[in-house]
Amino acid sequence: MADAVATLRKLAPHAAPALVAAFGRTAALEKAGLNTPLRLAHFMAQVAVETNGFTALRESGNYRAARIVEVFGVGKHSAAVTPAEAKKLAGDQRALFERVYGLGNPKKAAELGNTKPGDGWRFRGGGGLHTTGRAAYERAGLDAAPELIETEYCLQPALDHWRDRGCNPLADTNNIREITRRVNGGYNGYDERVAWFNRLWPLLRKADAPAESWKAAQPAESTRILQQQLVQLGYPLKVDGRYGPKTAEAVTAFQKANGLRADGIAGPITEEAIRARLKGTAPAIGSAVVADKPGMAAPTATGLGIAALAEGGQRLIDQAGVLHAYAELSDWIAWGAAGLTVAGVAVIAIGVIRTYVLPAIWPARPAVPA
Known about the structure:
This protein has about 375 residues and is mostly helical. The protein folds into four domains: about 5-55 and about 160-215, no CATH class; about 60-125, no CATH class; about 220-280, Muramoyl-pentapeptide Carboxypeptidase, domain 1 (Orthogonal Bundle), CATH 1.10.101; about 305-360. It is about 55% helix and about 0% strand. The protein is built from 20 helices and no strands. The protein has helices at about 5-10, 15-25, 25-30, 35-50, 65-70, 85-90, 95-100, 105-110, 120, 135-140, 155-165, 165-170, 175-185, 190-205, 215, 220-230, 245-255, 270-280, 305-325, 330-360. Helix 4 (about 35-50) packs across helix 14 (about 190-205), helix 5 (about 65-70) packs across helix 6 (about 85-90) and helix 16 (about 220-230) crosses helix 18. It is flat. Mean pLDDT is about 85; it is low at about 280-310 and about 320-325.
């Protein structure tokens, strides 16, 4: 297996020295189960994103107000920071982390084990996978001196988290989607994680290993079931249990046809939509095979597809017609009728543009490991 340190120096010449040294401790890597090129490449890709290209071993809160709202705003984070708050917090990292991780955000503080004033700042993200919260620092034995997360101890909490969260079996099947969720809690920076992996894999793989990582991966039962379901819906796929470009393209096509976000990631919403389509168009997995292959899945009511938008627009136009009958009673009624007509036409136009025009100009290209 290729040297992790040599790979790190080649791809990230300005990497934090403590992190470079930590990757040189091969015994610790092997103890965490990072004993194959595929596992190591996936682990390093996650670390790369969490540490800003292997350079930052402590979370930075030096954000402008707009960035604070984007990361910690309403609907983005449990802190639900308002634009007015963000203006006051901008440039004050200590106050920001107290607000989002500390006692200023009771729900998140309880989740992270932050119980005292100042915990949000002291136990902000640190180390290879940005360990966060008093409880996590206690597990790593660093709660008395959290600043040590930037020294020789920077990688061990990340290795423990990786192993304890069951990421090695996911790496064996090249499941970067689920690895990202277990590391990040969501899919933040997913495309960037894929991009880093695609830079790391060619340098870490064995000389006789396939250039395409998905071919080197073990088949996954979950992927095999997904592929079989997509085949039942009419998408031409080889059912081999490997999540390669063709599978990602089929998932993207299904998402576009059903009004979902077309990212090629078969997450819970996409999986539920596939199951819903199967109930109406194909037999369940394991039942008798039908004689004729089902046709390509048509758009359904999942999400705001063209049909839903068209129906909504037509309803607005219909309501405008009702108001027109009373337009002579008041100018306000006449203006309201005209406004509803314009809105209805606009909604229908948006549906057409979203469904047909934008995909033609900017076709979705899901990020997948090479």
